[in-house]
Specification:
Structural class: alpha+beta
Distance between the termini: 11 Å
CATH superfamily of the largest domain: PurM-like C-terminal domain
Family: Belongs to the HypE family.
Pfam families: AIRS, AIRS_C
Number of domains: 2
CATH architecture of the largest domain: Alpha-Beta Complex
Strand content: 25-35%
Protein name: AIR synthase family protein
Largest sheet: 7 strands, mixed
Strand order of the largest sheet: 8-10-7-11-9-12-13
Number of helices: 11
Domain PurM-like C-terminal: 152-304
CATH topology of the largest domain: Phosphoribosyl-aminoimidazole Synthetase, Chain A, domain 2
Order of helices and strands: HEEEHEHEEEHHHHEHEHEHEEEH
InterPro entries: HypE, PurM-like_C_dom, PurM-like_C_sf, PurM-like_N, PurM-like_N_sf
Shape: globular
Number of strands: 13
Length: 334
Amino acid sequence: MRKGKLSNEKLNDLVLKTVQTSREDVLIGASIGEDCSAVAFGDTACVLSTDPITGTAEAIGKLAVNVGLNDIASSGSEAVALLLTLLCPEETTDEAISGIIRDAQITANTHNVAIIGGHTERTSAVNRIVISVTAIGKNTPTGIVKTGGAHAGDFIYMTKWAGLEGTGILAVEKKEELQTVMKSTELEQARQMLVYTSVLKEGAIGKQCGATAMHDVTEGGVLGAAYEICEASGLGCELQKMHIPIHPVTEMICNHFLIDPLKLIASGAMMMTIAPENAPALEQAFIADSIEYAKIGVMTEATEKMLVYGDFEVEEIKEPIAPPEGDALYDVLD
């Protein structure tokens, strides 16, 4: 069986058909594509998300915090606290555990977020360090930005680069092999992509400018994120392939391993939709905060999800975007 999170079809069949939301105070329950759940407590909504970090041990404390907080940011909410569960192989040293927690705390401090609990153990159940992070945020019940909030005609924007996180992970996990095809400076540049795995700024900007949907680009990459926004919103999309930003070092690594950068995990990249009249303000905000961005497509009334080759002024070739099936990262790490 393929590694990685379940396909949308399997997730629906094996999990979501059984998990049911029956309480009125649950504002957002389990569903395909939604980054967060939310529960109402009077005039306040508690926003929650949980994620594991399994692909790498490099900077795993920092990565866990950023990935958890990214989901909260994608809902337009304020991040408040984190719970961390750390499962370590039996041979993991005290120093390694201490270093992971120290990096997590430093990153949490940077975002004014508290680590308020969790669990830490050595166990034979894992052969590499695994962190599961639960992030907690707050919002008003009506202020949450959902993955499924897009409207037909909305522009689709993306920040930073496709395959961002996967590039950094592969630069670490496959360093020896990549040293034969990349310069040391290029390989270090690829490893440094893990520095850019936070989307808290983008989330705040998107909410301020009126984004209708936001989704951080995780497993399944850019195409997976676009598919999930469409599914959650009951719409389709047209993505312009030539406008999707791909960093040169990502192209080098993906070409070497024969994988698609658009299907490579990209925590640190944010996808959002916004009405055309609000797009200029969004772009100006990105520019003012020195955030790389690109307008990559449009939401459509028709439910077909299409990747478009060519530019708007020339003949276009379109192909359907398939449902996400795992991540290209695991094709290399298997």
